[in-house]
Amino acid sequence: MQRPDIHDTRLLQLTAAVVAAIIAWFLLRGLLPEAWRTPGSRELYLIGVAGVLLLLVPVAFVVAKRGGSGANPVNWFNAHVFCSFAGMVLIAIHSGGFLRRPPALLLLALIALAALGIWARVYGSRRIAATFASKAPAFRVPDAETRERLRALISEKRALLAQLDPQANEGTFSVNLPHFLRAPRLALAYRRLAREESRLLGSRAAVSPQQAWWRPLHMALAWIFVLGVVIHVITVTFFAGYVADGGPITWWHITAWGG
Amino acid sequence: MDSIERGPSERLALLIDLERCTGCKSCEAACKTEHRLGPGEYRNKVVWASELEEAGLAFLTLTCQHCERPACLRACPVNPKAISKDPVTGIVRVDESRCTGCGECVIACPYSAMGFDAQGHHAVKCDLCVDRRAEGEKTTACASVCPTQAIRFGKRSELLADAQQSGRAPRDQDHFLLGPATIYLERSSTQKVGGMVAVTPARAHPDHSRRPSFMDGLAAQTAVQAQRPAFPYREERADTAADRVVPGGCNICFNCCTVKFHFKNNKLVKITGNDDDPLLKGRVCPKSQLTLQMYHSEHRLLYPQKRVGARGEGRFERISWEQALDEIAEKLKVIRDQYGAEALAMYIGTRTGILDYRTTTKMFAQMFGTPNKDGTDPFCASGKNVAFEITLGSIGSGNSYTENDLGSAELYVYMGDNQAETRPVYFGMINDWRLKNGAKMVAVDPRLTATASKADRWLPIRPGTDMALALALAQHILANNLHDAQFCADWVLGFAQWRDYILQKQYTPEWAAPITGLAANDIRQLAEEIAAADGCVIFASRGINQHTNSTQTNRVLMFLSAITGNWGRRGGAFFNMSAGTPLAAKVPEHRAPKITRQRVRRSPAGWTDAMLHGKPYPIRALISCNNPLAQWPGQEKARAAFASLDLMVHIELFANETSAYADYLLPAASGIEKGEIGRSNDDRRVVWIDKMIDPPGEARSDTWIWVELGKRLGFGDVLKEEYKDPAVLWDEVCIDTPAMKGCTQKRLHSVPHRWVRIPVATEDAPEIETLYLEGTTVPTGAPGRRFPTASGKLEFWTEELEAKFNMLGMSALPEFYSEREQLVDLPYMELQETDAEEGVISPFCSPATGSARGKIIAPGPDHPGAKLRARGFDTELVTGRPPAAHFHSWTHYFWQSQEMWPDLYCQIHPEKAAKLGIKDGERVCVESAHGKIEAMAWVHAGIRPTAVFIPIGWGERQPYNPWRPVNFLTDKTQRDPVSDQTNLKVLLCRVSRAAG
Questions:
Q1: Are residues B509 and B370 in the same domain?
Q2: Which end of chain B has fewer surrounding CB within 10 Å, N or C?
Q3: A59 Cα to chain B: minimum distance (Å)
């Protein structure tokens, strides 16, 4: 079966290229015209917009993967990798080299996000593979109390599922994006029960913290970044004077279009 | 079963019988080959677990449970999911093309049965071989090969019904109400232990046990994963679909598994068991399958090389075959002229194969005129061979692994034979008969081995004292008239002399108890069981053989079998591994120069003084066909000896420790690259292996090399060009004996399983299941001779035999002695001459061979064991075979064997480990009076608290996880005067945490 997978070597080459591009930009930006060093200049503004547009692809990946419409999740995954890298370079350029101002935290989150993703793919994968046959305690004599709690939990899930998705089989069901859009309250309640079941199974606790939590952390960083971008757009647009901190307001969408 | 839902009746499943599984990992090998999985990538895995508080050993074949409520499926964030469950069969599958590699399913599975391809970044899992079965196969790859029939595949309801019918209980592993489909059958027997802590199956289970840390150690596994694995890793299924299947055999070990070689476009793509074999029925051990990795290994030697650096440095330049053979031949001529023909030694080891060991190399040695040729026998089996020859007149028991024969025994006693790991398929058959017929099994071994883990009783004997146990068993039987008096009267020569001797010496169970460390009651019980059983099979192996009392202990065990009527009957036998294959190769008398000097010693380890000091005469050249520099005892001296040679030629598959010392390194072919027979096996099956593919690069068959070298020395008229074709060599040279005459190429190829059980005097002679039955005549003997000795009887004692033993300072009536290095002072064997002295001509060897005379030394104030103990050597070192995936050096070049068993380990009892501050998985230093090595600690209560065990096979130059071989700790001077067998089973050592 041919999967359009990005090989580790290629991913690391790509990472090296991105790091080199960012470093080159920081080293060479002094040689570039003034506009490339002016926060919010037309050039940097457009670069920032392009970066955000590229970073919308990972968001789209999240939706496509969960939404039921993605024909090929692996291609979407690859797109999220390539666009994240490209977007990160553009966002780095968009920063204008001002790394001591609060918006630089966004760039930091983006770098952390990418670093975590690369670690997970290149090194974390080995840990994931090494999980096989590592949870022998699962073959211990079953604990009656846990089983009773699980039995009750499964009954609750089934009752809830009858409302959330009557055609579904609890044994193979998990809530996805359409359920959240259709019946958010029920979906959240179901997910709470599913998490409780997962906790009773103890399977996440049975693996290393890195393996257990890299992905939740990766997603959390992604949301922090998205939130940061929204705050950044709002503040530079509606609180430009505050952001400029007494200096000139040079961002293009205000200087060109007024504000 | 407390499942939340009941599955449909069509639900498919695996049934895994914990009473049968011996942890051999054959299923792992089959699965990886079938699904082209690489290092670190699993669909199934066999977990070994051992106890810290109590002796126990358990195995769990872990694979997908195909749950009713699969946690993996529900955890998959992809929509539609990348994991699906078939509503009819219940099979849970992963669609690798949709998997994004997030690993959530791996985390979610509480059984940790979800695999992951770390290179391809996607989940992998067992799908009960859907694709394989769609191609017409009836069962899964794992079930098809399982040597012990521990894995079965089928409809879950039917598997459960079968289990219930046979009174076996499925264990409840539905801890989480996931409704697992996979059925695990609980262990069934009640195991007891003599003299030590009790082992119960309830404890010896992964539920309670710890896994040895070293097996899954990240560093060890990374070393395997760092190298590119050999074909067929990551190949497309279509690219490994065979268009041609050829039957043959495995050429590695004594089980001689029959296999099928699968080819696509003449490329070997898979090796499976031969399901057309009526005996083995497709069951194979992992090694047979993993030879696929040998045939495709990038580590193979590809062309002849000549040394350019210093000896041991390992620097070579590529040369042509012409140059290599011409130069070697010229140097051999010079050495012959200068020192005599006997200055050439030939060490023809396991790797070479029986065909060349018994034919071309033998003919070459005879024509060159050197007596100094031998193989691994003096390290493994020479003691039992001599014992068989003088007692029975032939090597091997004469029985077969068939339901009528060994399957009909009531009692199986394993003494120093870990058959489950050394001949897994044979053990699977014995274990099956044990379970079906309710036969008993007793294991006598210092270690709780995989074999012992299945036995009803484990007797953890002090290493080196099996002879005392055997004598006490015999004494109890004779003293209480429990023996088969009629058999003894009719078919044993010298019975009265031996009986009187045993009774007079008072070798009672009480006498043996403090020597063996076993309770006298346990000894009496075993004696009475052996005597009472309607069919008892005593299995012995290296644990008996690798001692200075090798011949005598084997003889006493043979006598024990004989006096209880367990010889020449179905279901009763004394077994000691291979039966020997009597190949005929001989050089015409007029073409073989008269050999004027005796062979220095039978054991090649006894040649080192001749190499180093020229005593008793010089050996200046060595041609070696395997890896003596991991294998010979006393490595320091062996390496110094090799460094001193004028010419050292190494014929090998892979560059190893020995290669580094070679002047010329010649690349060899193996198995189907050259055509040969399998190893000599337990029950007289000659397994033929056709030449099917060309060897890699410029590698050549051993036959080719010896014929070509022979030509250059003028032997071409005897070592003929046409013998390069193994089929011609076989029919024209090998089978010219009464026992082999009917084992022709035609007959071997007339059966789909490619083996013939010898003796067969003619092509249409029927195979004989059990030899030496009452009323029969030995096939190749005179009428009335039931056994192949001169007298037609089993020979315990004769005047002639007594005279032979007397020549070596011994008696034919076996007197107890043990080893020099023991924790208690016991009588031991001291050789009266060193290897530098000529000694006497051994009456037990042909050709004429020098031997030291022996003297049994009684315990006294100057006992060498006491001196060693005073120096802090306070632990018994036992060496031996590693588990089933390994065999000597060569499997250490197969990536999957190394993945299964990566590091050299040292089994150590928790009490000792605690005392020394050693934790499981830590690096330890083991030092004997002869050398020092390091290994990884495996803290395991299934070993005598006073002993450690370190396996053979690892070497410093293997590509994955190199270690100094254990033979740095062993001593070449502790040998059996009769067979020249070295003691490798008990030496005193001290263990400590390794520095740093």
A1: no
A2: C
A3: 14
Window 195-254 of B, Cβ < 8 Å to A: 206-208, 211, 216, 218, 221-222, 225, 236
Same domain, residue pair A95 and A222: yes
User: For residues B495-526, b (16+ Cβ closer than 10 Å) or e, as one string?
Assistant: bebbbebbeeeebbbebbbebbbbebebbbbb
Mutation choice for A interface testing from B3, B6, B32, B74 by most A CBs within 10 A = B74
ipTM of the complex: 0.95
Prior bond to A209 cis, omega within 30?
A: no
pLDDT in tens, A193-252: 999 999 999 889 999 999 999 999 999 999 999 999 999 999 988 888 888 878 888 888
Residue B3 pLDDT exceeds 50: no
> How far is B654 from chain A, CA to nearest CA, in Å?
29
Among B449, B469, B554, B453, which residue's Cα sits nearest to residue B517?
A: B469
Choose among A66, A131, A212: nearest Cβ to B112: A131
Domain boundary among B193, B211, B229: B211
Each residue of B904-920: pLDDT tens digit? 999 999 999 999 999 99
Domain that holds residue A149: 144-201
Residues B496 and B552 occupy one common structural domain: yes
Question: What confidence tens digit (pLDDT) does each residue in B323-337 have?
Answer: 999 999 999 999 999
Per-residue pLDDT of B508-522, as tens digits, reads 999 999 999 999 999
In terms of domains, do B423 and B567 share one? yes
CB atoms within 10 A of CB B226: 9
The answer to whether the CB atoms of A129 and B117 lie below 8 A apart is yes
Instruction: Give me the number of domains chain A comprises.
Output: 2
The C-alpha atoms of residue B281 and residue B273 are separated, in whole angstroms, by: 7
Contact B131/A at CB under 8 A: no
| Assigned token pair, B220 | 């060890």
DSSP single-letter state for residue A123: I
Chain B residues within an 8 Å CB radius of A68 = 79-80
Residue B247 lies in a domain: no
A226 with A153, same domain: the answer is no
Chain B segment 585-644 residues within 8 A of A by beta carbon are none
In a domain, A22, yes or no: yes
In this structure, are A124 and A181 located in the same domain? no
Q: Is 0.80 topped by the overall pTM?
A: yes
Q: What is the mean pLDDT of residues B281-288?
A: 96
- Same domain? A160 vs A47: no
- Distance CA(B512)–CA(B516), nearest Å, equals 6
Query: What residues of chain A, 222 to 251, have a C-beta less than 8 Å from chain B?
Result: none
Distance in angstroms (rounded) separating the CA atoms of residues B81 and B94: 9
Tell me whether residues B70 and A74 touch, CB distance under 8 A: no
Please give the share of chain B, as a percent, with pLDDT higher than 90.
Answer: 87
The helix or strand, by DSSP H or E, that contains position B492, with its residue range, turns out to be: strand B492-493
Which of 51-70 (A) contact B at CB < 8 A? 65-68, 70
> Chain B residue with minimal CA distance to A133?
B112
Residue B807 resides in a domain: no
Would residue A17 count as lying in a domain?
yes
Average pLDDT over residues B450-455: 95
Q: Residue B570 sits in a domain of what CATH number?
A: 3.40.228.10
The answer to whether B348 and B361 have CB atoms below 8 angstroms apart is yes
**B360 and B493 together in one domain:** no
CA pair distance B42, A68, nearest whole angstrom? 29
Contact across the interface for A7 and B176, Cβ inside 8 Å:
no
A141 touches chain B (CB under 8 A): yes
* Angle of CA points B439, B443, B448, to nearest 5°: 130
Confidence of residue B784 (pLDDT cuts 50, 70, 90): confident
Residues on chain A touching B125 (C-beta within 8 angstroms): none
The CA distance from A158 to A165, in Å, is 10
